[in-house]
Amino acid sequence: MPALILSTQISGENNRRVTIFSPDEGIHFATLYGGPKSKLRSLVSPMNSGVIYLYRDEVKKQTKITDFDVKNCHLSFRENLFKTYASSLVTEILIKTRCAGSSKEAWRIVNGFLDGIELSSEDDSRLGLIRFLWRYLALLGVRPDSAVCCSCGISLHSTKFTSDSLSQRYTFSPFENGFCCPDCSSMEKGSFYLSKPAITYLEAISSLSPRDVRNITVSGKTLLEMKNLVYNLIEQNCGSKLNSLESGIGIL
After folding, report:
1. pTM for the whole thing?
2. Residue in 100, 101, 70 with CA at minimum distance from that of residue 5
3. d(CA 4, CA 215)
4. 153-193: per-residue pLDDT in tens?
């Protein structure tokens, strides 16, 4: 079956407990037998993806990995701290949300993200992480509507980019789980301010094709605004603090 290795843990003297993500079974576990010289042990590594072969012993309730045909190793993850932490964040989100209840759709966007940042610079990968999290929030069914004001219903994108519109600030309301236009904006506990470029980029992720969105560039300030909001939303909807975000402060 198609599989992505999420993590491996020591189990016994020479074995490994492997966390696997697949489109048909979601998150599941198997045991990898063999010592340090085992060829399979080097292949079954976190973020390697391909076709995995399993043997299931229904009597002992055990699943054993018998082979793994690796298609993608994501080698750049081992050389870049941001990509390492970003992949750990993806793993943690998948496990905590149980693939958002849709393993096939989660498989599509997770692998699209991982394959994308493998070929991207760190700066492009940071923006790619925002896109992935925004799409994953939609898969969870909790993504805010970035098209209209949640208070008055006016389009948030009816005005063109001008010097005046660029200075306007939109507010994310945690109570409404939506965005307020500048006329309706009011700060409440847990609110976030976003500029017009930030709210426009989030809507672009929602409505345009991935290829078209990748061609849009944003400033560092806009990226920071979106990151603060999206990280907060994904953590809230995972139901607990995310260790990857905690340990990756200053990197993610």
Report:
1. 0.92
2. 70
3. 28
4. 999 987 666 655 556 789 999 999 999 998 888 777 778 89
